[in-house]
Amino acid sequence: MALSGAGRLPSKEMVKRRRLLRIEDIITKMQDDKTGGVPIRTVKSFLSKIPSVVTGTDVVQWLMKNLSIEDPVEAIHLGSLIAAQGYIFPISDHVLTMKDDGTFYRFQAPYFWPSNCWEPENTDYAIYLCKRTMQNKARLELADYEAENLARLQRAFARKWEFIFMQAEAQVKIDRKKDKTERKILDSQERAFWDVHRPVPGCVNTTEMDIRKCRRLKNPQKVKKSVYGVTEESQAQSPVHVLSQPIRKTTKEDIRKQITFLNTQIDRHCLKMSKVAESLIAYTEQYMEYDPLITPAEPSNPWISDDVALWDIEMSKEPSQQRVKRWGFSFDEILKDQVGRDQFLRFLESEFSSENLRFWLAVQDLKKQPLQDVAKRVEEIWQEFLAPGAPSAINLDSHSYEITSQNVKDGGRYTFEDAQEHIYKLMKSDSYARFLRSNAYQDLLLAKKKPESEQGRRTSLEKFTRSVCCWRRVRMAAAFHPRGGFLPAVGKVAGGQAPHGPDAVLLTVPTAGPGPGPADPTGRRRRSTSADRVSLRGDLVTVKEKE
Amino acid sequence: MSPRHRQMATEALHENETLASLKSEAESLKGKLEEERAKLHDVELHQVAERVEALGQFVMKTRRTLKGHGNKVLCMDWCKDKRRIVSSSQDGKVIVWDSFTTNKEHAVTMPCTWVMACAYAPSGCAIACGFKQFSCLSLPSSWDYSGLDNKCSVYPLTFDKNENMAAKKKSVAMHTNYLSACSFTNSDMQILTASGDGTCALWDVESGQLLQSFHGHGADVLCLDLAPSETGNTFVSGGCDKKAMVWDMRSGQCVQAFETHESDINSVRYYPSGDAFASGSDDATCRLYDLRADREVAIYSKESIIFGASSVDFSLSGRLLFAGYNDYTINVWDVLKGSRVSILFGHENRVSTLRVSPDGTAFCSGSWDHTLRVWA
Question: Is the ipTM value over 0.90, yes or no?
């Protein structure tokens, strides 16, 4: 098949295909005189003329004007991409980029456009390189990498080189018949085609495709076409065709499902756009001060300053005012933050209603268990919180209780969904609201400072041991206590026993629950005293009971 | 016509009629749904957002460049510790980095494998990889996609220098086509996967058992994201059928669906409140869908952006949407106003993956140029 020219008069089919691809739409418009395309000229140079070229500057200007691009850098980048894809090329360079200067570019012939699904074989490439060596033109001299490629191909195709040589000769003959100017143009377009499919080493190969999408973009049924119309045995040997996903015919069942779905959607209560907009704006505005990419983080963004102070502060047990403030944004916020959760738990303990949060946490934990452990945990939760005479009985309405006791029989991970939702709503509307009004929370929010004298005395070791030994509870990721079961409320354990004996062991996981001892009725923390004895053995700390 | 023939003819007609009438019923319902939704469309987000203060001048730069992959980086994920990262590439390599120091802490190479998805476990003690493995005897030519295994494996991270990371690997998920995405739920014990076979699935890591499967996409599923709620049990997925679907993890049912993109949806990500999500598509646009309004509420596009968006993520407040594109750039969008705030150059090939860090102090992008960059 003969190579077509600059493609000024495309067929209807080509026009249709182009509209589907924005890049081709742009390239077509760029070449259109009538709608203010880039001026395409023939330029005089030394002894000859350079036909059908545009300058980089003109292309960049056109892109800026027609695609509303303000920054020339962006236009140059886009221009380079269009070149790299193979729609426009520098006439004197194998490397396909765009420069904002007087460099000359030419438009690629639609025959060579990527949308034609070219996957040229090495035989074609060999024919091309071979053909180039047959022509005595300085501008057609092989670049180093091309010479290397040719040498490799000669070795690879040693046995059929005669065939390739003949094809190359045939091509040269065809080319010679053409008009000199036309040949200049065609030669350059052909070279640009190969620059895309066999790029200069180090350049991006834009023909590489997303492996997930290859199946659909390539057409396994079509025999790969040759640039030079060569058909040979190797192409007859069809590669392994993957049966593309068989398109299931829509069944009546499918449509019935769709109808059910649509009906559900129609019945759905939706919010008006104005309300939704207000909500999105309100959320964003509330959190903007917490967004380090908008409001610079204090003391600094570690990625910018190379200082991890910010992360160290976040790991510490003393929450910043900003962090405490966030707990007040929504119930989820306090549940998300380990430190916040602990504060809330402590508050609930003071109100003797911690079983609600502990139940909620236990159910969250249940959902994270491996399948094999689920049934056992379901039973444990039931016993601890819901069974008649449960030690940490939670308050459920009879309907919810009924559903839950039914679910327990099956013992799946969603057994307590209904109950959990109920308890969540209860805590949110009741305890959480009170917590936010409590002295404990307000003190943290206003960052009430502790008396000066006390702060001065503490050394870092004391601070560490204080944070560890004031804790009487075992704190592990799963919120379980070493003897099994759930976190008992301080002072409120079945049988009235202390949670653990004198030699209980505490894992000092750095992010483990921190902090000060149980709140006294006024919500203030209890001070540590030197009477608290602690010994450190590597990672494990033995807590000695204070009483 | 004999009575028998008449009966058969009537039945045949009835059969055909039912399908056709069902189809037309569905069409009319779609029309009605559109009408109902349009009634609530009283204003555009960007119009209401006019009163919001404009963002200042944006200066974001590459703060770290991670080099070590020998091929296209396809996926990455952050560890909850805000600095570690796991990344995977097309040559089967999976690397765990401390991106703050740029040190590589773990690496494993799976021969003849495309690792298209990877995820960090919430505990930080394991990673998961979704991959497609080929027989090593016949390296894939550009035509052979039959492949052998489409799996998701979990690797515990060990600091024992002598132990090979691959030693304790656990095979968790199996699909009938490539795995495009994988994510742990809020536990190390469950993994959610999306596949080219058109389905998503929830797996129990310990036993490898399938807990729930999600059918509904009409083509490859390319991405998924779990809702950020503490109590929620939903996730959103996007596919080559141009649809974004929201699923109930408990029942396996699709609860909401959105179909406004004009091409494959490559990436979906929830807005931080969980009330909305963004998507990035091959149609060169990103869109915002609100779950309460049950419709698309914003489009992020420009005439000059003509290449597909491969991955999107929100900044912590949801004000910014970072989107990586196939034109090697990252565009930063003002979510509320709909305008582009900044364009970031740096990668030398397509940006394939992008995630904001857990505390929002930075975001990381991975590219076909074999590198990852952390921006702040």
Answer: yes
